[in-house]
Amino acid sequence: MTHVLITNAYSTRNRGDAAIILGMLESLRRTAQLGGAEVVISSADHPADQGGYPVQVIPSFHSLMSATRGGGRLQCLYFLVVLLPASLVWALLQRCCHLQLPAPSGFRTLMRAYAAADLVIAAGGGYLYTTSRVNGNVMLLIHLHSFMMGRVLGKPVYLYAQSIGPFAARYQERLVRAALRGVRLVEARERWTAELLARWGLAAPVREAADAAFLLGADAPRIGLRRAEGTLLVGMTVRRWYREDDRQQAYERAMATFIGQLVEEHHAKIVLLPQVTVPSKHDDDRLVARRVLDLAGHPEAARLLDDDLAANEIKWVCGRMDLFVGTRMHSNIFALSMGVPVIAIAYQPKTVGILEQLGLEEFAISIDDLTAGRLAALFGRLRREETMVRETLRRSLPAVCEAAERAGRLIAEDYAASRPAGAAATSS
């Protein structure tokens, strides 16, 4: 039996990341080469993610680091001084001498999963970027180390549909570029990344794909979602993006003012959906949504859907909206894949790139340029052109879904072609 290790998974409490993993599993299962493989997922939110996927979930370097006592700086130091060198020594001894040193259970489980894997796949997503020349360097190193451990052990490594960059410093870009030289295949999930990788001139082939979340199914949750006949129902996501409080507050005020305009001018009902609810990592959309709603001041018309919904249920709810205005990129993907017209608030180039695949990039607005007036003007245009947008979605979605499906097939075919004739997979 072939063994696959998927690294760089974040958390099922980020429904966008969960949708990526679930879409990856579906795509890989439908391939002839990896359809019967045993898959293990290394998650940053272990043990919370245990039971969240239909396969085994084990710790990641990130979760092992986060489990140590102390603040963020001490945890980063623990990774640099303990986890990083220990994993390299363990891997080299395993590869050269087939020797597995004694180690704590979580670390041992992770390292044995690398050793048992026939191939390592870095989960799709957009985590190879930076916003500061200083902050986030250790996190970037963890992301790279998570899949490059496969190369240390001599395993073929693949990067599932990725958005890569931007980078705040040239040395960060060079570090990522160097790491990608040793992989078998890199999949770019939008044009911006494909063009960046083309400029890098990687030895590994680069193939264009689409986000795996387009493959996620939608299931109705056990909640009431009532609507009055003829009411315009607008879905929305907000998030913490800016480190600077003044910039974050300006964004939240703009969203609140826009909600007021939707209620007063369009008589709309607003549903805010929390895509990410990871309070331990200060990544909880509910906190931002409550502040925005308090500022908006229309409790009769705007509410937060505070139920604990899975990714496929969030996608179903997105599909019940008439229109959608999303800051979280995967909430936009959920709505678009359900045929709902979207205004996407772009905090990185990847958002524009996803809309570009569908021919709807003019309905993206940069978060740095966001004002309530600009958002309202774009919303007015969306309403006027709604019929055209729905038709564009109907025509373009099949090709994007096929590109998402192709991502797993490209990896499976390359892995099969790379194996020597008659080679056997790792025994189970």
What does this structure look like?
- This protein has 428 residues and is of the alpha/beta class.
- Helices cover 47% and strands 16% of the residues.
- α8 packs across α9, α8 (245-266) packs across α13 and α10 packs across α11 (329-337).
- The strands form 3 sheets. Strands 1, 2, 3, 4, 5, 6, 7 and 8 form an 8-stranded parallel sheet that branches. Strands 13-10-9-14-15-16 form a 6-stranded parallel sheet, sandwiched between helices. A two-stranded antiparallel sheet has the order 11-12.
- α8 links the parallel β9 (232-237) and β10 (268-272).
- It has 2 domains: 3-216 and 401-418, Rossmann fold (3-Layer(aba) Sandwich), CATH 3.40.50; 232-397, Glycogen Phosphorylase B (Rossmann fold, 3-Layer(aba) Sandwich), CATH 3.40.50.
Keywords:
428 residues; alpha/beta; Rossmann fold; 2 domains; 47% helix
List the helices and strands and how they pair.
Layout (H helix, E strand, L loop, with lengths): L2 E7 L5 H15 L8 E6 L12 E4 L1 H6 L5 H26 L7 H12 L2 E4 L2 E4 L8 H16 L4 E8 L5 H11 L4 E4 L2 H10 L5 E3 L23 E6 L7 H22 L1 E5 L4 E2 L4 E2 H12 L5 E3 L6 H9 L3 E4 L2 H9 L4 E5 L2 H9 L6 E3 L5 H13 L1 H33 L10
Helix pairs in contact: 1-14, 3-5, 8-9, 8-13, 10-11
